[in-house]
Amino acid sequence: MIQMLARDLKLCENRETFKSLIETGIPITRQDVVIIFVTVTGLRAKLLSQESFVRKIYGDEEKDGLSAIQKTTSAGVLVMVDLLREKKLPEKGFVRLEDVGFETFMANRFAGVYA
């Protein structure tokens, strides 16, 4: 549906109308939850092992707070921008989020939402 609105009806060219349609047609909630679930299987001490990691991130309760999806999406972007600002990323070329080491990522001040 978004493709039809954005491309076919050319609403990307009229951002205010597009924004108004989205804001009035899609309800906003702060009661969302982002669930991060990772399972890894591999050899540990020559034994096939499996480990899982689960994290739930909730939206803020207050009226002007952030939803869980806003928190998690913005945190990843902010970490990368901050690492670039701190000159911990290459200044040229395309750098993917997965190119940053886990420890480096989590040590950043904006990664706290994932802790």
Describe the overall structure:
This protein has helices at 2-8, 15-25, 68-85, 102-107, and strands at residues 33-44, 47-58. It is of the alpha+beta class and 115 residues long. The protein has 2 domains: 1-29, no CATH class; 31-114, no CATH class. A hairpin with a 2-residue loop joins strand 1 and strand 2. The two termini are 35 Å apart.
Number of helices: 4
Strand pairing plus helix content: what structural class?
alpha+beta
Rg over C-alpha atoms, rounded to the nearest angstrom: 19 Å
Secondary-structure element series: HHEEHH
Give the arrangement of secondary structure elements:
Blueprint (H helix, E strand, L loop, with lengths): L1 H7 L6 H11 L7 E12 L2 E12 L9 H18 L16 H6 L8
